[in-house]
Amino acid sequence: MRKILKYLTLSLVIVFFMCSCSESAEEIIPEYIDGISDSNLDGMTVNWGFSMSRYQEGVDNVFGYIPGTVFADTALERKKQIESDYNCKISVDNDSSSYVIADKLTASLASGSRLYDIATCDTSVLRNLVRGNGYLFGLSSLLNVSNTDKFGTPNMLQTMLWKDDLYGVVPFAWPDLLYTTTGHLFAVNENLVSQLGQTDPREYVEKQTWNWDKLEEVLALYTHEDAGRTVYGMQCHDAYFAMNMFLSNGVAFSTYEDGEVVCGAYTEPGKVALERARDIYKVTCKDYIYPDSHTNDGSYLVNGDVVMYVTGTGGIIGTQESLMYKMDNIGILPFPQGPNATPGIYPSYYEQITYATCIPVNATDFGAAALVLDAMFEPFEGLETKDDIAQYMADQIFFDIRDAQIFIDSIEYTEYGFFWEGGRSVIESACSADTPISTLLESNRDKYNQLVEDYLVPHYQGRLAVYGE
Questions:
Q1: 29, 63, 232, 248: which one has the fewest Cβ atoms less than 10 Å from its Cβ?
Q2: The model's pTM
Q3: Contacts of 63 (CB under 8 A, 6+ apart)
Q4: What is the pLDDT of residues 406-416, one digit of tens each?
């Protein structure tokens, strides 16, 4: 098991000094922030509601980090520096539930009372405020949202792009927080692979031979008998398998082409991916997949009942109960590529983003709120780039730099599948239903057309307004 540096206090290990916040306040007021001309906030209190990741509910937190850890202490030091530079107080309401902050915010907006100047919570509930006609400030005039390394990529922010603006950003430059809320990856028991005399599967990714055919090959090679029991090549929930196979063929849930929204499931590469997913899961590799694939606690991988386990990123590094803290040699793989994929690009998807951050319209001073948010979300010193973060994760969390790079890439190419709106229902049923794929798609065409009209068109309107693409 790894001893994680982030779970040691600053006094025992290292001190991260603040980056841009250590400059004079006058020097770091971004030119694009409207509504504030003076860095002196005259002692005002900026109230920030911040909810913990759903993977760590019930755990105290400091801006999403566990108290007493390097990153928690660093965030607190940054808070103090901002308070000093801007002559203000930042009052943080940290809650261990993903939904309490959103519920409090919604109640304050409904009653017209002031509560939060900034709120960070789960997009599964924040999305309703984004679409609520005037509950949140549009952020494209308050923050430099084109800085996607700091505030998130358009795909990462899909839930918060609506009609004419962007209504939420994420602390994209902060390590760990976003890596527990996206994607599905293979966690591989590298000890079992070695005992079987097989190639480290990371090499397939490096050589760009990690494709659908190779997956079928290794599933057969990894499945074996051990002391009277069958050790299976893979454990994977059928819906997760269908969803990720779909994306692995260079298909997106939706695209905007020549002024029209195109649903990926209705493209030829999408149909090919769903057909192949069903064939692997229910026919060619059925005997190599653990039969109880709906149990999602990772225990089969830990106990050596399976060689590979497909799980969300939060199941791998989300908490001290995650796989990285239970096993002594895990490898990480993306989903293998289909024939239509761009070599080396391994996409993922998310159902919700925990640390979506917004400024409500009842904020005391939206300019001051934007100033504090902008300064707070600067990268931590020494971890300013993706390479810095990958090296940190390789040194302190994973067993191989390649695993860290795969993790970061899964965030880079993630997208929202409009899960809460029903946009994935056909795709995720591909490996569980017996109905022909073409029939499934045709029978749901009206549903998808309605999804496009109700949600996808307003999303792309917002995306075009903010990013021009």
A1: 29
A2: 0.85
A3: 50, 72, 75, 76, 79, 92, 94, 376
A4: 888 888 888 88
